[in-house]
Amino acid sequence: MAETKGKFDFAIDRGGTFTDVFARLPDGQERVLKLLSRDPQNYKDAPTEGIRRVLEKETGRAFPRDQPVDTSLIGWIRMGTTVATNALLEREGERTALLVTLGFKDLLHIGTQARPKLFDLEVAVPEVLYEEVIEVDERVVLRQDGCQLARKDPKRSTGDSLEVWRELDLERVEKDLRGVLSRGITSLAVLLLHSYTWSDHEKAVGALARRLGFTQVSLSSEVMPMVRAVPRGYTVCADAYLTPKIHQYLKGFTSGFKGGLKDVDVLFMQSDGGLTPMEQFCGSRAVLSGPAGAKWKKKPVIGFDMGGTSTDVSRYAGQYEHVFEATTAGVTLQAPQLDINTVAAGGGSRLFFRSGMFVVGPESAGAHPGPACYRKGGPLTVTDANLALGRLLPSFFPKIFGPGENEPLSLEETMKHFHHLTREINLFLSSNQSQMSVEEVAMGFIRVANEAMCRPIRALTQAKGHDTSQHVLACFGGAGGQHACAIARALGMKTVFIHKYSGVLSAYGLALADVVEEVQEPCSLQYEQHSFSELDRRVEQLIKRCHDTLCARGFTRSITTEVFLHLRYKGTDCALMVTAAGYPSNAQTCLAGDFRSAFTKRYLKEFGFTIPDRAIMVDDIRVRGCGKSGIKSVYNTKMGHGQAKPVTMTKCYFEEGYLDTGVYLWEELPCGHSIQGPAIIIDKNSTILVEPCCEARLTEGGDVSMTVGSDPHCALGTELNTVQLSIFSHRFMSIAEQMGRVLQRTSISTNIKERLDFSCAVFGPDGGLVSNAPHIPVHLGAMQETVQYQIRSLGNKLKEGDVILSNHPCAGGSHLPDLTVITPVFRKGVSSPVFFVASRGHHADIGGITPGSMPPHSTSLQQEGAVFTSFKLVTGGIFQEEAVTEALMAPAQYPDSSGTRNLHDNLSDLRAQVAANQRGSQLVGELIDSYGLAVVQAYMGYIQSNAELAVRDMLRDFARRRQQQTGSLAVESEDFMDDGTTIRLRVQINEEEGSAVFDFTGTGTEVWGNCNAPRAITLSALIYCLRCMVGQDIPLNQGCLAPIKVIIPPGSILQPSQNAAVVGGNVLTSQRVVDVIFRAFEVCAASQGCMNNISFGSESIGYYETVAGGAGAGPGWNGRSGVHSHMTNTRITDPEILEKRYPVILEQFSLRPSSGGAGKYSGGDGVMRKLLFRNTVVLSVLTERRSTRPYGLLGGEDGAAGLNLLHRADGRVLNLGAKTSVSLQPGDMFCLYTPGGGGYGREEDANGRPQMKRRRLNESFPERGSVFEYRMAQEGV
């Protein structure tokens, strides 16, 4: 598989816009070529055309386009292609049917039940990939020790013991499959529950389907045998949907060559960064093939690939970093993929000025019309900003722009747009602020774009405990070179490396990549001495399978294999895919290496602690075999004598103004000589900007290495600079985000570490919120009340080294399990705190009358757990463990109550919250060191004013429309809780000021129960509603509420007395407050208005979930079915994990037909969820909308109310009502029917409805990677 002597070898990357070709000639020389991926007037297939051009040019022989290419001169072809990715984005795959276990036909529609964008009222979730669903009456369940239901004969599998509860009915399946075939569908995806560990039923269905004539049959047990039905289901659907398209493309590709490439070794790049033979290339492994990695003088590398619409960021430190689940185009794929993080900021990202703030993206100009300078009527973009500053030189670009694609880049068009935008900005700036020039505006947008790209790089490195500044920035892609110096400097990096083939690096990486064979199987063993012989046996089998496959492909001596175990501590969900490289085996380990040491060291690095007394579980065994290709690059550098000479000089704009800038051609640069910035280095495929105080040098390999100097820091004053406003907004958010990463890494409980149920925030000296990340709706703004309470209560008693703990509703708490830890930030020479940082985390138990501290029937605060008002958790730097332990155990003094049931986790998580605050305090200190206290506090105020301005603009706009329609500036509405309590609201708007009074007078009194909502909950709901109505990204801080006066009657359900029970107020009443606000403003119909809190437990286990329902319809959209709405966004536990860990069988989880209200636009349907219990447990339900219905709007019908039924094992059916706690016996089944959303507009108007425009999915879902997954998980709480 090494270099083929005397032949041409080709590595080709077929991208969405361009196809890159890297060719190695018979004499070892290299050629690169770039051509359009689609040019139907000139050629059918870009890779074939690239090969033809190289062969024709280098041999001097004619290779006619209309004839198949002669392959006698071709050694091998390696390809990466976006065919699968594009089919996924455009939803242009094969027509597919899904065959699934009975009761789960909507499982993949519901997915995790979380919505992708928290503040979008129109819940845009990509449609499923299948066209039809067949439900199969079969059921396999995991055998459980202690199960009290009648047992069936066990079946053994990969470490799990199973029982077949319902055998497969193949006759019925055959009838259904024939029906699907008759409708022209020939691709089938099969997903049966627990098939990852026992695949007999899936294999029987697969054999039948193939016999009947299905051309593509994908079985989830073969595509990805990993636990978790939902991601495995998405993956098998993607495989069935995309593989036929890949085969279709391959057929077309091979037909362009003589003999259909029969004697040529053709390999394709997979998403895990390895190559696979053409005939084994399949849909689930073909999405987004990855970049090549490189190590630089033993320093880890950050890959920075800036394209037109997005930027890809990756990390490499000697080995590839894989993720085993990632979302692309809204589809979660469960397959090994390189961890490439895509952010929606690229050369084509659009530029906006909104409410006094510079905003870059996420909207993109795309390839058509493209940036304004492309002469096709496009908008202003980052590319235009670089052109306006003289950093792109039109004379060095090909003339391929304009309608005829024969004109140069247009500087005139760019400047015309910038003059217009600059006028708009200067009109906004007050008379006492200095006016901005076009160049200052363009430069401002570049700096904001750079800061937006720095945030994911910080997150990617710091999330795993790495120091960002200790990396080299490896830059590739057409647009990256213009930003590399600035980004490296902002991140504290000293070196930028740009490969000589940076413009075609993916193609070059293909030539260097290994051929990979991966095998994986599930495992349910404990990592301990008596399991090692079984582990060794299974590892040996998998290694042999890898070895045999690679031998069959022509590799012999150059095969390496690496063993991975997917390990986690028992009782946790944080599994790490661990290799034992560097940890050799010994007498106490399995033969493949010392995985215990490897796992504990990596766990400590990523999470900051280990759990020494906890067993380690093996979830999966994976073996990755590599056939080394052995290709080496050849490059002849010119050894230079004398300095490099610029081909021309130009004027380029920097912070200092216009500077004379030398322009150099990369190919003419001598090796070893340095070029001082400012300079521009131009290559055929990219432009590199060497900024002032930076130095570029050509290495012996022909690459460019840049040394980044420190920024000649220009002092920033306290007066408002709109560019710095955007940058400070990013910096404050970054502090809150980094606090969150520390909290997640160092916490121990499932709730915080895995469910990510926490928020971190930064506050000003007055306790006003500055930045909050990430956004858990019910925490928005609520922490501000807590901090301000402590300032009023403790005042000058706060000293450096103190940390406060609080959760009491009267002190700004939401409900007791949410513990808030507050740290004042002091500065030398200032007596009072200059900032505050705080973290709020949901603790799984803090005592009270029920496990989980969320009792459905509490009537006083003391029954809900431990209470803290202004408790000093740390005094003078010393953690008060004894005092806090005593307080956490204190609820035991009340009747029927217990102290905390999990003290160890409480203490560990409180320490983690203190550590997160410490990190926030340190970062605030660094920001003050850089800019000075006065400047940082001034910009804190400006950011709050910016949010205030956006809300005032929205209120003025609403007032104008309202005045025209009704002549009144007052709106009002009311809605009801299930017990009849009224929530009433009257809003009086002042159009001139852009302010409003929200008056809840007339709202019902405090209730005997726990649906009382502390004032902080109403403020959180209000901030959430305001952000939704503003409709664009704004900083979520105290400025949002500055134009709002809130009146809440004391003693009401929204401002109860000090000892009122509040646990239901947080999770239920908050939803009703949102319904009332949206009804007043006529924004949309009501969503389900409930979180459907379900918990069950016994002495040994406890489980809690919230369940989706229907979303309300609105002007121009139908409500989404089976999704969480408004004040919650919790992900639901996967069916297979639920059944593996708890004594329950999920009999059904599907949509509830016709539960959404009818209308011009229909409300979304609720769901049906049926839980069959295997043991005795206590079930608690805490729900709403069981007697009132979610309202329709403007003639739309109401959604259906919810229903909680209990089917006893003896046949009785009981209605449990909205809130109860009940003891269940084995065989009892709880059936939950959640409410639907209200309809919008009259149903008879539905015929006049405009057709909804279908968007390309990467416009709506451009981001991906582990940083994005983390944010989605955090917002899914």
Automatic annotation (TrEMBL):
<dbReference type="GO" id="GO:0017168">
    <property type="term" value="F:5-oxoprolinase (ATP-hydrolyzing) activity"/>
</dbReference>
<feature type="domain" description="Hydantoinase/oxoprolinase N-terminal">
    <location>
        <begin position="10"/>
        <end position="212"/>
    </location>
</feature>
<protein>
    <submittedName>
        <fullName>5-oxoprolinase, ATP-hydrolysing</fullName>
    </submittedName>
</protein>
<dbReference type="InterPro" id="IPR003692">
    <property type="entry name" value="Hydantoinase_B"/>
</dbReference>
<comment type="similarity">
    <text>Belongs to the oxoprolinase family.</text>
</comment>
<dbReference type="InterPro" id="IPR008040">
    <property type="entry name" value="Hydant_A_N"/>
</dbReference>
<feature type="domain" description="Hydantoinase A/oxoprolinase">
    <location>
        <begin position="232"/>
        <end position="518"/>
    </location>
</feature>
<dbReference type="Pfam" id="PF01968">
    <property type="entry name" value="Hydantoinase_A"/>
</dbReference>
<dbReference type="GO" id="GO:0005829">
    <property type="term" value="C:cytosol"/>
</dbReference>
<dbReference type="InterPro" id="IPR045079">
    <property type="entry name" value="Oxoprolinase-like"/>
</dbReference>
<feature type="domain" description="Hydantoinase B/oxoprolinase">
    <location>
        <begin position="722"/>
        <end position="1242"/>
    </location>
</feature>
<dbReference type="InterPro" id="IPR002821">
    <property type="entry name" value="Hydantoinase_A"/>
</dbReference>
<dbReference type="Pfam" id="PF02538">
    <property type="entry name" value="Hydantoinase_B"/>
</dbReference>
<dbReference type="Pfam" id="PF05378">
    <property type="entry name" value="Hydant_A_N"/>
</dbReference>
<feature type="domain" description="Acetophenone carboxylase-like C-terminal">
    <location>
        <begin position="534"/>
        <end position="698"/>
    </location>
</feature>
<dbReference type="GO" id="GO:0006749">
    <property type="term" value="P:glutathione metabolic process"/>
</dbReference>
<dbReference type="InterPro" id="IPR049517">
    <property type="entry name" value="ACX-like_C"/>
</dbReference>
<dbReference type="Pfam" id="PF19278">
    <property type="entry name" value="Hydant_A_C"/>
</dbReference>
